[in-house]
Structure to design on (688 residues):
């Protein structure tokens, strides 16, 4: 029981890390390798507001989200849209976007280093125990789970019930056909990319309450987010959420029952197995 | 025409004359510094290494520069970021010596990068007084690389020292003999854990929980829960900065209230007390300093004044001391001859901010701090292999 709840809490953290990347890769078709740096930037913002003005990270996210949305929208329109226009097929776009965002990640690290310095930053927020079904958990992790749940719920409702959401899902399923029915693909792709960025930055602000970050730790998060997105199926936010929760439970199970040293091995083993037997991921569409 | 050419000649001579006139040139010594500014170890290097480079150059230049056989040389530091990548460290040293015209290169940061760069320092004959390398292999190393010096000790003496501290507390009747031990699955953590197991067992302790976790693990609660379930008297973690903070926070949340709580790297960082405040009281960590030593206090004050940051309480003072060794060796030999400087370092003892530094026949400094503890907001050394000023340990009393 304890394992399941800890696993779910970890899964919530993973969902926060991965949903943004799914929006950017699945819907805007940009494999954003600078995703982890965006998360760290969100964390920095929360750290800065908290240590300078004792502002709770839960309030900071209302500042971080619009800023990240605008920044990512600008990056998409200025740097990435020319790649989209130029790409003759999806494979070429993926390669181009990987290389470009890889470069953006280095630029981001350099900028963060110049602005914030290379120090680790850590602050204690809500690091108090809360009891659920007899075992203790950190309130900050529980809060992260709640935030992840709220963001997932809002996103899913919006994607499935609103017109713009439906249009975005359309461009992830069939980008060429979407144009035929009058959907403004370039504009919506930009919005999806920007939204993904905003979600990731908010996730960063929330996880910074219990993780130690510094300017160079972004790459660890990009890797985790990548395997979760691919496991869950590109293009479907439900898949990412389920994959994140499952991964959290699996890692916690391995850590408690087998050996904490094997968590990474177990995660990547499952990743390889899914790629072998169901390459499109849990919820993805089979490539024709 | 003749007059014009005489005028031209006169003009040329005049110009040549001004160029050849001795300019009151300040001699400069170019000294390279290669360490992480990005990559996994950047967080540590930014606290321990880079501020000391800045402080040392500042201090030497304030005094008018290095006195090399009568001529004063100002120090010019050339910095490179090796991205925590040993290949980049080696490339940077190569570039410093062949392209940038550096006279000396300060050693890199961390055990791994120092060991990787040792061959190229040897190739250029550079004196390499390391200050952030913890290794037991100094005998073999100094055979292979006669220019390398180790100051920060090795895993065996550190774990022996820790076992000694624990034994004393146990023999006083304050704790039992159950130890829960965890380590980060990286060379540093693994080496320390391997040295610790026999040391603890020989001292009569029972290791009731023994596990490792990957570097960068996001959720350490399974590790701490498992440790708590084994009902230990002491919790020992050979950890790196992100997990040092993570384990401490988890222990607070889970209520792991052992009377002895030890985490490794970053416990001695000012940021540790910054993050945990009063709850850090009683936490033991690797390293330590003699807080009561006026030399250290003066160094710490200067460090904060010049660089804007406090020094850490383990390797910072050693880093600065190692630079002082280089400085005094250059001034002592009165020349820039690298071989003579290396010999001078071998033959002499040095008075530095950490105390006296003296190297044995294996180029090893055998007296260094091993265990420290946060007591009343200060990280004090409680055990060493021969440094003065160790204070008595206190027992950890909950997490308030």
């Amino acid at each position: 029981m304890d394992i399941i709840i800890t696993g779910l809490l970890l899964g919530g953290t993973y969902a926060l890390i991965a949903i943004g990347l799914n929006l950017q890769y699945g819907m805007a078709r940009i494999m954003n390798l600078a995703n982890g740096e965006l998360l760290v930037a969100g964390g920095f913002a929360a750290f800065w507001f908290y240590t300078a003005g004792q502002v709770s990270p839960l309030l900071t996210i209302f500042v971080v989200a619009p800023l990240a949305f605008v920044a990512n929208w600008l990056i998409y329109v200025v740097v990435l849209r020319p790649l989209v226009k130029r790409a003759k097929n999806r494979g070429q776009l993926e390669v181009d976007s990987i290389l470009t965002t890889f470069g953006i990640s280095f630029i981001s690290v350099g900028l963060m280093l110049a602005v914030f310095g290379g120090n680790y930053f850590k602050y204690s927020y809500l690091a108090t125990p809360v009891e659920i079904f007899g075992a203790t958990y950190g309130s900050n992790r529980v809060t992260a789970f709640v935030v992840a749940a709220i963001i997932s719920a809002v996103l899913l409702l919006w994607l499935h019930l609103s017109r713009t959401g439906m249009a975005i899902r359309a461009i992830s399923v069939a980008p060429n056909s979407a144009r035929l029915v009058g959907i403004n693909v370039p504009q919506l792709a930009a919005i999806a990319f920007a939204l993904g960025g905003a979600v990731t930055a908010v996730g960063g602000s929330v996880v910074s309450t219990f993780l130690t970050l510094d300017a160079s730790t972004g790459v660890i998060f990009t890797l985790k987010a990548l395997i979760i997105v691919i496991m869950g199926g590109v293009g479907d936010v439900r898949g990412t959420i389920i994959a994140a929760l499952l991964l959290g439970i699996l890692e916690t199970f391995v850590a408690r029952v087998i050996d904490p040293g094997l968590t990474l091995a177990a995660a990547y083993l499952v990743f390889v197995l899914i790629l072998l037997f169901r390459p499109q991921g849990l919820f993805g569409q089979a490539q024709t | 025409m003749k007059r014009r050419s005489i005028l031209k000649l006169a003009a040329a001579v005049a110009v040549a004359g001004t160029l050849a006139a001795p300019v009151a040139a300040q001699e400069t010594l170019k000294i390279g510094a290669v360490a992480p500014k990005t990559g996994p170890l950047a967080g540590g290097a930014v606290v321990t290494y880079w501020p000391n480079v800045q402080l040392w150059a500042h201090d030497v230049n304030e005094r008018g520069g290095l006195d090399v056989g009568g001529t004063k040389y100002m120090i010019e530091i050339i910095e490179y970021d090796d991205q925590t990548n040993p290949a980049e460290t080696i490339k940077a040293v190569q570039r410093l010596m062949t392209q940038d015209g550096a006279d000396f290169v300060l050693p890199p940061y961390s055990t791994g990068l120092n060991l990787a760069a040792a061959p190229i320092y040897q190739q250029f004959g550079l004196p390499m007084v390391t200050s952030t390398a913890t290794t037991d292999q100094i005998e073999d190393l100094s055979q292979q690389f006669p220019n390398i010096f180790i100051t920060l000790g090795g895993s065996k003496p550190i774990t022996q020292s820790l076992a000694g501290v624990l034994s004393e507390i146990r023999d006083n009747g304050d704790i039992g003999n159950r130890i829960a031990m965890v380590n980060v699955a990286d060379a540093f953590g693994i080496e320390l854990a391997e040295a610790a197991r026999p040391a603890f067992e020989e001292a009569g302790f029972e290791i009731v929980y023994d596990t490792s976790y990957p570097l960068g693990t996001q959720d350490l609660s399974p590790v701490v829960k498992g440790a708590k379930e084994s009902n230990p008297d002491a919790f020992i973690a050979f950890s790196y900065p992100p997990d040092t903070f993570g384990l401490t926070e988890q222990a607070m949340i889970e209520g792991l209230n052992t009377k002895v709580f030890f985490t490794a790297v970053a416990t001695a960082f000012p940021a540790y007390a910054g993050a945990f405040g009063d709850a850090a009281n009683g936490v033991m960590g690797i390293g330590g300093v003699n807080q009561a030593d006026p030399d250290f206090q003066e160094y710490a004050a200067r460090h904060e004044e010049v660089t804007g940051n406090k020094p850490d309480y383990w390797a910072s003072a050693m880093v600065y001391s190692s630079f002082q060794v280089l400085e005094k060796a250059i001034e002592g030999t009165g020349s820039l001859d690298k071989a003579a400087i290396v010999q001078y370092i071998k033959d002499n003892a040095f008075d530095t901010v950490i105390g006296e530094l003296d190297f044995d026949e294996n180029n090893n400094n055998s007296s260094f701090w091993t265990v420290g503890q946060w007591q009343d907001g200060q990280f004090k050394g409680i055990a060493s292999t021969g440094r003065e000023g160790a204070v008595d340990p206190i027992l950890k009393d909950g997490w308030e």
About this structure: Strands of chain A lie at 129-132, 135-138. The longest strand of chain A covers residues 129-132. The mean pLDDT of chain A is 86.
